[in-house]
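--- STAGE predict ---
source: upstream dedup step, 1 unique chain passed
mode: sequence only
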Amino acid sequence: MVLDNGLATEVFAEGAQVEKLTEDLFGWSEGPVWIRDGGYLLFTDVPGNTIHKWSDETGLETFLQPSGLVGEDTEGVFREPGANGLIPGDRPGTILLADHGNRAIARLDLETKEKTFLATHFNGKRFSSPNDLVLAEEGAIYFTDPPYGLRELDASPFREMDFNGVYLRRPDEEGGSVHVIDDSLTRPNGIVRSPDGGTLYVTVSDPEAARVYAYTLGADGLAIERRVFADLTAMVGQDYPGLPDGMAVDADGRLYVTGPGGVHVFLPDGTPVARIVTGTPVANCAFGEDGHTLYLTSASFLARVRLKATGLGFQD
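--- STAGE serialize ---
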């Protein structure tokens, strides 16, 4: 179901409807990424500690289990031990992932399934549970680190950070260097960039401050200004399931924000365009196939909707 406020004629294909692709199988589906070389989608079940694979040809398959924590959680550290956000990799044949169970940003080789950990600490302290990420120029990675992977969240005795951060990891030193973009958000979650790379968007999945922030980035990649791009707090608790979470961007700079009531589509200036409704919370979304299909990880199932708009990176 697609709700249109009259501005969506350039976004949705005629008669566009949400197509449910799987049964209600997942604890919390997340992190969809389209693998263009293989013609398939990968996505995560975070509490289920699994990366799943889906394609029209073969349907649903298990791709990697465990996706995060290996072995038993004997100390009771984790609420959600699996991988969360997935994005195309910084090298051919790889993806990058936000790994709750290893409290890290990692690179995964799609053939060997071997991980390389790229960021695990800031100022000598372990991250809580990296959630989502976006790749920038020359291998730089922006990512968020809320406490959702940890049992007891902020109160976890295993939490080492005293803030929930937005970070930039630069591959400019041995092992990479990590820099703080913002240490003031209660629940930083989804993260994407504008097509020109000049704006970083971050969602906050706090029911008391359910917002999307836009950061103007300087030449060094750090934030020089922050503003509220959209405030969805008023919708929370009004029969609209979900909170601001993952996002996608199309080639024209429109932002697709999962949040209360589905996926909210905004023009680059923040004007609301439409809302895609699945009937459940939508945790994340990503463009796939020929760039005109938006995949939706919708809580317990996977779905998609056909668009006229083209996903960022699919213009060629």
